UniProtKB/TrEMBL annotation:
Record keyword Membrane present: yes
Protein name as it appears in the record: Peptidase M50B-like protein
Species of origin: Trichoglossum hirsutum
InterPro entries associated with the record: Peptidase_M50B-like
Pfam families, per database record: Peptidase_M50B
Length: 121
């Protein structure tokens, strides 16, 4: 769900940057997501979902090289994970997976000065 949200927010961000209007973003744990928008430059907004989620992934990889950056990234990821529960309140598999991921992030904070966060983030 989190990767789908990053993908759809990439479309929405580029639509806003090119003068478009985002009408809605829908996320479904079983089917993926869709961003409804008007206007904007479609040649830029269409690939922005893949580019946006790829750039966020690259940023998380770079955060893995530093413990402090990993701590900041884990807080941001934890909040994003918990926000995905709002979209998936009826899907038990997503709820359990998100709660386990947040529990893993929290547990890593207490192991060897949070060094495992570098590998989890």
């Amino acid at each position: 769900m989190l990767v789908i949200a990053f993908h759809e927010f990439g479309h929405a961000f580029m639509a806003r940057c090119t003068g478009g209007k985002v009408e809605s973003i829908s996320l479904d744990p079983r089917e993926g997501g869709v961003t409804h928008m008007r206007g904007g430059i479609s040649a830029l907004t269409l690939p922005a979902g893949y580019l946006g989620s790829s750039l966020i992934g690259a940023l998380l990889i770079f955060c893995g090289f530093d413990i402090v950056a990993s701590k900041v990234a884990s807080i941001v990821l934890g909040v994003c994970f918990l926000l995905t529960l709002w979209w998936a309140r009826r899907d038990w598999l997503t709820i359990v997976t998100v709660l386990l991921a947040v529990a893993l992030l929290v547990a890593c904070w207490f192991i060897k000065h949070a060094e495992p966060l570098r590998y989890v983030v």
